[in-house]
Write a structure and sequence with these properties.
The chain is of the alpha/beta class. 24% of the residues lie in helices and 31% in strands. It folds into two domains: 144 residues, Carbamoyl-phosphate synthase small subunit, N-terminal domain (Glucose Oxidase, domain 1), CATH 3.50.30.20; 204 residues, Rossmann fold (3-Layer(aba) Sandwich). Strands 10-12-11-13-14-19-18-17-15-16 form a ten-stranded mixed β-sheet, with helices on both faces. Strands 1-2-8-6-4-3-9 form a seven-stranded mixed beta barrel. Helix 8 packs across helix 9. 50% of the residues are buried. Bound molecules: glutamine (GLN). Glutamine binds next to strand 16. This is Carbamoyl phosphate synthase small chain. InterPro entries: Anth_synth/Amidotransfase (IPR050472), CarbamoylP_synth_ssu (IPR006274), CarbamoylP_synth_ssu_N (IPR002474), CarbP_synth_ssu_N_sf (IPR036480), Class_I_gatase-like (IPR029062), CPSase_GATase1 (IPR035686), GATASE (IPR017926). Keywords: Amino-acid biosynthesis, Arginine biosynthesis, ATP-binding, Glutamine amidotransferase, Ligase, Nucleotide-binding, Pyrimidine biosynthesis.
Amino acid sequence: MTNYTKLPAILLLADGTVYYGKAAGKIGTTTGEICFNTGMTGYQEIFTDPSYFGQIMVTTNAHIGNYGIHKEEIESDSIKIAGLVCKNYSVGYSRKEASESIQDYFQDENIVGISDIDTRSLVRHIRNKGAMNGIISSEITDLEELKAKLAAVPSMDGLELSSQVSTKEAYFYGNPDATYKVAALDLGIKKNILRNFEARDMYVQVFPAKTTFEEMNKWNADGYFISNGPGDPSAMPYAIETVKQILAADKPLFGICLGHQLLAEANGIGTMKMFNGHRGLNHPVKNIIKNHCEVTSQNHGFGVIAEEVKKSDKVEITHLNLNDQSIEGIRVKGKKAFSVQYHPESSPGPHDSRYLFDDFIDMIKNDLAW
Ligand SMILES: NC(=O)CC[C@H](N)C(=O)O
C-alpha cells in the first residue's frame, strides 16, 4: 500500500461556506457540483457511475474505503465522480476479495478528495441551500484563489455531458445467439444495465451518444434502450430527436433516468433542475399500475415537470415518488414505450424493480402498446 499521510485540505462551496479537512486521494484541486448520496454501501459502484460525471460526491456512510476496492464492482471503466467528500477515509481495508486500497485507486485514477469532514452538517447545509458548485483543494490554501477558480465552474443547469462519457465506437455486449437484440444509446450507460439485459436473453449493441436512429436502425434490433447519463436533458436536442424517431417508427423503447427525461422531452414535456436531487438506495416509489411499493435506487438532479406530465395527452404516469410525489415513471399512450426515473439495475441498491427488464422483454415479445 502507498504511504498515506494526512495532509490538510479545504472544501469551499459557492455560497462561501468553508470546511477544513484532510487530503484524500491525489494531492490537487477539483471542482464540480456538490451532491450527496445517502446509500450505506456500494461506494465503488457510485464512484464509477457515469451519471455522476462533473459532480463532487458527499457520502453519508461514516466509513468509506473500509471494504477495499474490487476490480469487478464497477459501473464503467474508470472513476467518474469529480471528487469525494467523506468522514472516515479508510485506507486500511478488511475484505479478502479486495485487490487494493481506496488510496491507491484514487491515486491511480487522479481523484482528489477530502476526508474528516462533518458530512452530517455538510449534507444538512446542502439540503437547506440547494444544489451548488464546490471546490476541493489540498494544494491551494488561499481562499480568494479558490473562490476565483470556483467562479469559473459552469452550472450543471444547461450542461451537455453525455458525449464526454459515451463510448467512442459502437460495441456488442452479451451472447450473439440470444433471442432478442437491443440497441442501446449510450449516454453514460451503467454496466449493470448491460448485465441485466444479458441475463434475460438479450444481445446488446451499444451506440455512441450522437448516433442517429437511421444508423442504429440498420442493425434491426427488437427493442431500443435509452440510458442513464450525466448533465441536463434539455441540453441534448440530438438525443431528443433520436427518441422522437424511435417513437415515430413504433419501435419498443425503454428508458432509465436520463433516458426517462428524454422520453418526456420527446413528448413535449419539459424537465427542470431540482432544488436537491434524489441520490440513495431507499427511495419509496409507488407503481400505480401494479399497485405496489418498491424501494428504489436513485441518482438524479433533474426531473420531469409534474404539471406538464399531468396535462399531457400523450403519456400516462406509471410510478410516483412517495416522499415528494414527483414523477418516477411514464408510458406513452398507443406506443410500446416506457421509462423510469430511478434505477432498476440498482447497483448498488435493492432489487425490487428488476421486473422492469422483464416488462421490456414482455413488451417486445407480445408487441404490447399501452
Ligand atoms: N442517473 C441519471 O441518468 C441522471 C440523469 C440526469 N443527469 C440527472 O441528474 O437528473
